[in-house]
Amino acid sequence: MYSSIFRHILNPFFEGFIKHRKMLDYRKFLDKSQWWTREELLKVQWTELQKLLEHTYANVPYWQDVFKKSGLTPEKIKNYSDFVKLPITLKDDIRASKERMIAGNYKGKTWTKTTGGSTGVPLELDYTPESYDWRVAVSKRGYSWAGCEDGMKQAYIWGTAIGEMSRLRQLKENIHYAILRQKYFNCFDFTEEKMVSCLEEINCFKPKIIVGYTNPLYNFAQFVGSRTKVKFQPKGIISAAEKLHEFQREKIKEVFGASVFNTYGSREFMLIASECEQHQGLHINIENLFVEVVDERGTPVKPGEAGDILITDLHNYGMPFIRYKIGDMAIASDRECPCGRGLPLFEDVVGRSLDMIKTPDGRSVPGEFFPHLMKEFKGINRFQVIQNELNRLKIKIIKDDKLFNDADFKFMKNEIIKVMGEGIEIDFDFVDDIPLTKTGKFRVTISNI
Question: How many CB atoms lie within 10 A of CB 35?
Answer without folding.
Answer: 13
